[in-house]
Each structure stands twice: as C-alpha cells, then as structure tokens.
Design goal:
The protein has no helices and 12 strands. With about 150 residues, the protein is mostly beta strands. It has a single domain, classed as Sandwich (Jelly Rolls), CATH 2.60.120. The strands form 2 sheets. Strands 1, 3, 4, 6, 9, 10 and 12 form a 7-stranded antiparallel sheet that branches. A hairpin with a 7-residue loop joins strand 7 and strand 8 (about 90-95). The radius of gyration is 15 Å and the shape is globular. The N and C termini lie close together (about 10 Å). The mean pLDDT is about 90.
Length: about 150
C-alpha cells in the first residue's frame, strides 16, 4: 500500500530540510520525489503519521530512494505505535543502512507479529545520517500489508 511520501517532515530542521522541490537540487536530474537536504552533519529523521484503513496489518516497509553521495543516507526505518498517551510506544526498527547512489527500492526486515492499525496510531520514521556534502531523494514509500 503506497503512502504519500511527500508528507514526511523533518524532526530537526536545523540539521536537515525536506522539500518536494527535488528538481532545483541538481543532484537528481529527471527524478522527482522528496528531497532531504542536510544543513549540517548529524543524525536526524523525517517522520509522518500513517493514515491507514482500520484493519491494516503492517508486516514491513518499502522505501524507494537514491543518495547523491556516500555521506548522507537513511540509517534506519522505524514504525512506532501509540497505544495510549500514558503508555510507551511500541517501536519496531530496522537499522539496515540504505546507501545506494542509484535509484532503488528496498524492503525492511519483516515485522512479526504485524502491527495492526486498529491498535493505535502508527508513526513512520526514517533515521538519517546527514552531511551537507550529499542529499537523499525519497522516490516512494509503501507499507507491506498482510
């Protein structure tokens, strides 16, 4: 199930910005998507709440992306489920570094047991290792459902 990857927002705009104006970067000629531009080196993330049908069972995440260099990359894919504001979130994280310099789509590790949207809001987060010397282009994101 594809989701609106252009809705991802930076968790810390002092480290990186996320914009849909990828053509202006010059780093990814002919490609469109969400451009992640580091302002300074550091770790940060882009995140969004998922708007899913009530009985969706998520078993993974698919990320389509490209990096303009080796110094900025997606360092992790996380899903957090908010069950109750007073209770800790359930967080599932895949720390496989996504470092491809050519456009590619990859699946996260499988989630067992699946996250169920009926159990509470789900937040998708992509951890980013950022360096102003390179950019990341998110071409698409989907949730793998059962």
């Amino acid at each position: 199930m594809w989701i609106n990857h252009l809705a991802l927002q930076s968790a810390d705009s002092t480290i990186l910005t996320a914009t849909s104006n990828s053509a202006a970067s010059g780093a990814f000629p002919g490609l469109s998507g969400l451009l992640i531009q580091p302002a300074k080196a550091g770790a940060s993330s882009v995140q969004m709440a998922l708007d899913l049908p009530k009985d969706t069972k998520i078993v993974g995440v698919r990320v389509c992306y490209s990096n303009s260099g080796a110094t900025s990359f997606i360092s992790q894919i996380s899903l957090g489920q908010v069950k109750d504001p007073a209770a800790p979130d359930t967080v599932i994280t895949d720390t496989t570094a996504l470092t491809s310099a050519t456009p590619v789509c990859v699946n996260s590790k499988s989630i067992k047991p699946p996250l169920r949207s009926r159990n509470g809001a789900i937040i998708l987060s992509l951890g980013v290792t950022a360096d102003p010397a390179s950019k990341i282009l998110i071409r698409g994101i989907g949730v793998l459902v059962k």
